[in-house]
Design brief:
This protein is an all-alpha fold. It has nine helices and no strands. The chain has a single domain, classed as Arp2/3 complex 21 kDa subunit ARPC3 (Orthogonal Bundle). Helices cover 72% and strands 0% of the residues. Helix 4 packs across helix 6, helix 4 runs antiparallel to helix 7 and helix 4 packs parallel to helix 8. The longest helix has 33 residues. The N and C termini lie far apart (63 Å).
């Protein structure tokens, strides 16, 4: 029945419906945007394998070249202060960080270091098959860091921590295999310089290299490349 006493029923105006529709669509859009993040896959794609292998092989060539030219750099450092030669280890530590930052899948860092070490060994190094042991130690160091971060953090901080992990892995191996029974001061200095070199060269260097590659469009099939485009 009609309202009595001059009172009128209140019906929503068209503006109300427009605002309600906008809120509904905003909610749907937010849910749609969030869905890909929840559906993030950690499974390897064929393109992941190909790019990881290409990057690792290239890194292996860099390892081999650094094997040839590093002694003139490291020898004076060691002569100045034994243990300081750990500063030259960084160029052998970057493969796992680089591949991990681009592929972003479990095992990518370990894969990158092992393949790079294998290429370096096949090309010929003074360490022979033990090069693979270094690749394993370095790769595991990086992999543990990315696993702790749940394979979700890929910024500069993650890259630096990855370089640190590689440096820790290499330090443990070297002090066990190449410098057994080393004095505490030497061990501390060698590990410290190796870790610093890993953070700067492998960590920061890989992060800068990923950004440079992303700008060329070479990483368009990867989140690292798409993120760089979105920020530009």
């Amino acid at each position: 029945m009609p309202a009595q006493g001059g009172r009128h029923s209140h019906f929503p105006c068209p503006r109300f419906f427009r605002e309600r529709d906008q809120r509904v669509h905003a909610t749907i859009d937010s849910l749609t945007d969030a869905a890909p993040k929840r559906a993030r896959s950690l499974k390897w794609r064929p393109v992941d394998i190909v790019i990881a292998a290409v990057l690792a092989v290239a890194a292996g060539v860099v390892f081999w070249v650094w094997d040839l030219v590093s002694n003139p750099v490291g020898a004076p450092l060691e002569a100045a202060l034994p243990g300081l030669q750990g500063l030259i280890n960084g160029p052998w530590l970057f493969a796992g960080v680089l591949v991990g930052l681009i592929v972003r899948k479990p095992g990518a860092a370990l894969f990158g270091e092992l393949v790079a070490a294998s290429v370096s060994a096949l090309l010929g190094t003074v360490w022979g098959p033990l090069t693979l042991l270094s690749g394993l130690a370095q790769g595991l160091g990086v992999e543990v860091v990315f696993a702790i971060l749940l394979y979700r953090r890929w910024g500069l901080g993650a890259a630096l921590l990855g370089g640190l992990g590689a440096g820790v892995g290499e330090s443990v191996l070297d002090l066990t295999v190449w410098y057994p029974g080393a004095k505490p001061l030497f061990a501390l200095l060698y590990a410290s310089t190796t870790i610093v070199s890993g953070i700067v060269i492998a960590g920061l260097g890989s992060w800068l290299l990923v950004k440079a590659l992303a700008k060329t469009g070479a990483l368009s099939r990867f989140a690292a490349g798409r993120e760089a485009v979105a920020r530009s």
